[in-house]
Amino acid sequence: MNILAVESSCDETAVAIVRDGREVLTDCIASQVDLHRIYGGVVPEIASRKHMEAIYGLADQVLKEANLTRKDIDAIAVTYAPGLIGAVLVGVNFAKAAALALNKPLIPVHHIRGHIAANYLAYPELKPPFLCLVVSGGHTLLVDVQDYTKTEILGTSLDDAAGECFDKVARVLGMPYPGGAALDKAAANGDETSYDLPRSKPGENPYNMSFSGLKTAALNLIHNTRQIGDEVDIPDLCASFSAAVSDNLIPRVKMALEQTGYKKLAVAGGVAANSRIRREILAFAHEGVEVFLPPLSLCGDNAAMIGAQGYYEYLAGNTAGMELNAYATKSILGESM
Ligand code: KG4
Ligand code: ZN
Fold first, then answer.
1. Around Cβ 144, how many Cβ atoms within 10 Å?
2. How many CB atoms lie within 10 A of CB 223?
3. Beta-carbon neighbour count of residue 330 at 10 Å?
4. pTM higher than the cut 0.90
5. Percent of the chain beyond pLDDT 70?
6. Ligand 1-lining residues (CB < 6 angstroms)
7. Rounded mean pLDDT of 47-69?
8. What number does the ligand 1 atom closest to the CA of 273 have?
9. Could you tell me which of 164, 135, 138 has the C-alpha nearest to residue 272?
């Protein structure tokens, strides 16, 4: 089954063709990052407009690259939530028009489920159940993936997402948006024990996380140091900050593996590119856990992951009609549309 998949929830317009949920025939991404960089973050109006400009051309391009015609497409999958509402709407409306014109099923896909499904593309042998740590610019979740379309959230960030904190701290250090990767690079030469930054223990659910206290502590430290005429040691601060983010995530992953008894751990989302976090995740392999860490190209936003999850949503009967709407926020739990 060839699924034409569409992703437009933030600042990447992406269209892909995925066969039977596991094989990427083509995957095209038009990134807007350079445009938003001058503003230090994503400007929603600009994002929506640029998605509209790019989406039709990308759809033609993926067909051409896969050497297919519109007749070879069996269904259309699209990110319908969560994301910047104007941006998600562009993808949803394009997908609805394509499904109507081609008379093919329309499959709504939750963006976070898509991130998890990137693992199915990178690891064709991977099947649920497994534990998945989702760490992106907008979301931080520890998910029990019981089946392809059945997930339980063990814990979540109660405030900022890990990626958002990386980007805010990077910005104050003068790194261009999105600064997570630059901060990671700077951390390579730093001493992570130099700066004392907080580790969170929010609320009653031990799996829940918090990053805003850590972010504020790091920002205050930078501002206070500069106010007295000193400069922070950038590599040391970046290393200490990365270690603090990692310490907020990894012990919870460990606890969840112990509690669920799962021997399979997958990771998803752009922050999975972080070297400190990757190192810690890979270390679980020494404890008999099979670790699934997709390549960086599949960790960030892309449409192939939407096509992969779309296939399993289709098999579960989760299709939609022309009434499908876009949502800025929606739980991953998959209540019917
Ligand atoms: O998953 P993603 O591409 O987009 C969202 O759905 O949010 O994640 C983007 C996030 C950004 O916050 C970016 O700074 C962060 O991933 N990121 C990193 C690294 N590479 C990307 N954060 C820390 N270390 C990295 N190496
Ligand atoms: Zn994402």
1. 19
2. 11
3. 18
4. yes
5. 99
6. 10, 136-138, 163, 166-167, 178, 180-181, 184, 269-271, 273-274, 300-301
7. 95
8. 26
9. 135
Q: Would you state the structure tokens that stand for residue 76, as one six-digit string?
A: 């259309």
Residue type at 290 in one-letter notation: E
Strand ordering across the sheet containing 290-292: 150-156, 140-147, 130-135, 264-268, 290-292
Q: How far, CA to CA in Å, does 304 sit from each of 20, 181, 314, 331?
A: 12, 22, 15, 21
Radius of gyration of the chain (CA): 20
pLDDT on residue 203: 79
Q: Which of 77, 49, 262, 65 is nearest to 152 (CA)?
A: 262
Helices (H), the chain: 33-37, 44-65, 85-102, 111-122, 162-172, 180-187, 212-227, 234-260, 275-283, 296-299, 304-315
Nearest CA owner, ligand 1 atom 20: 181
Structure tokens at 323: 């009434």
The structure tokens listed for 18 are 């995925």
Task: Tell me the C-alpha distance between 83 and 9, whole Å.
Answer: 5
Average pLDDT of the residues in 312-335: 92
Tokens representing residue 199 in the block: 């580790």
**The two three-digit tokens of residue 294, written as one number:** 């997709």
150 HSE (CA, 13 A, CB side): 7
φ/ψ region of 304 (left if φ > 0, alpha if ψ in -120 to 50, else beta) reads alpha
CA distance 271 to 226: 28
Tokens representing 337 are: 């549309």
- Other Cβ atoms within 10 Å of 180 Cβ, number: 24
Ligand lying nearest the CA atom of residue 112: 2
**Which has the closest alpha carbon to 327: 65, 61, 9?**
9
**Structural tokens at position 83:** 């994301």
What is the distance between the alpha carbons of residues 164 and 285, in angstroms, rounded to a whole number?
A: 28
